[in-house]
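Q: For a teaching session next week I want to show students how multiple molecules come together into a single three-dimensional assembly. I've collected the sequence lines for a complex. Could you give me the predicted structure tokens for the whole thing so I can convert them for display?
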Amino acid sequence: MNEKQSSDFVLGIAGNLVASLIIALANILIGRFAPNFSHEVLDVASLVLPLVLIFMFLYRGKIKQIRIEPRLWILRIRESITKTPQAGQIKQLFYGVVGCIRQFITQLSEIKLQSKNWINYLEKAIKPSVIIVTVITVFLIIGFGVSIRMLYEQRTITTAPSVYSSYQQIYDFLAP
Amino acid sequence: MIFSHLNKVPSKYWLIIWILATTLLLFMIGILVLNPIWQTYGIHVPGEPNTKVDFTYPVDSIFYIRNAEFGYRWSAKVPTSIWFHPVISWLIEIMPNTIPANWRYYFISIVSAPFALFFVYRYAQNVLEVNISPKFIPFAILVSGGLNMAVGNAESLSLLFNALIILSVLEHYPISVSLLFGIIAILIKPNALYMLAPLAVYGIYDLIGKEYKNALRSLVIALGILITWGVWILYVDYMSGQTGAYWQAREVATIPLYAGILTLIYRMVESIALGNIGEILKYATAFLIPLIDLWLVLLVPFRNEKHRLAIISGLIMLLLISFATSNPNKIFVYAMTLPSHLLIGWVVLQLGFQSLLKQSSFSKRYDFLAITALGVYVLVSIGMVVFFVVGTPLGWYI
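A: Of course. Below is the structure for the complete assembly, covering every listed component.
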């Protein structure tokens, strides 16, 4: 009995397919709207953007827990400053800002602990066959993205020599 | 009355009955459906303006027949002769001359079909965790490229021997017999090369599992395929009186040979931009068929993960050869020379129907996936049937 549940594979392939689609789309869009950048910049940019999105998706549970409340932070700093004698207010302001930043960084650092959901996903979905199929899918999708971008950059479409467009034509051309 | 007799048929005979019924169905479809439709086109076979397309020799089949009738024309300048490997032409030659050559060719195809179906079914029994019902054998016609078995073709015989190669490893046939299957397979069509990757996967698994004799079997078959191919290449070069004649002939049909890893994809994008329907469909099917198989194979319940990896490796070989030659031609029917292509189709259809009728023992999530896969597969298959019927005489995929 094979312990691997077939449905587990689908989680892996679906997640990776979405990722590669986003990468290809980003590659096309960035190439379309920023055609003057060098290829390296375009490719890195189009890879980084989806990676950020994928990162946010994977750690969404932790990210949701981050509380970004600038009004509260300012209020807390203002309160601490007003309660302090004038001579120590700058110092207090500095401590207040540092405290808020430290709190934010602490929250961010906690993100490195992946959600249980993701660990479960990893255990279930990431298997050699899924990785291989994903690599092929990603290669094809990125290949299409890059090809579309290359076509945009060229602006013109060069037609293939007619004799090579199909076997039918080759046969008619060559056969006795 | 008939049904009451059928109920008495022992279950072991149902496999044979369904295979024969499928063959009969293929024969009827070829004669009663495809031939009349294709004759209305009034299109000639490649290279011969006076020979109209017939269901007994569509696409490039005419060249197997001409090689049998007139012999090989040994020259790189006549690639339409030396492109083709010899077994099918030999078989046509040894059959009685009183039968027209195109009907001898068709006979080879239609006789190969039931044997191929039988051995692919047996392969499925060896590797799957579920039993495929023989009732699903006729659905081979729906599998993309499956309708090709209804007409004269070289792919059915190639499928038969490719299935035998895999079965040699799975059922531990004598090494000499296994080697013979490999040699015949490569002499039928170069499609036997697709089997190298699954053989490598099984060989590695057997080495790790210390089943050295079976690992040796895989190695011997793979070497048999490669050495025979090499000998045939040298023979073609020798007979043509020119070193490299075999490859020079193939370069003509390649677009262009080894042009670059992304060339095939770029050409597809270009074809879409140009809007040539035939070209778009040719490229789309060349990419979609292996890709859909790769995704669906993740849904198939196997007895062991090595079978899944072996199938994936075979599909990768199919893609790699297309990419290496930048050539999407005939992938639509070449996929049918992979035993796994048919197996995946049967499993997806059976599991989908079982889930639809709530007869499966899988989880709800799996049922949902199986039904979704079934829906997509059926839609794609219907599209592929139309593509085959319309596209074959028009040369859309060649």
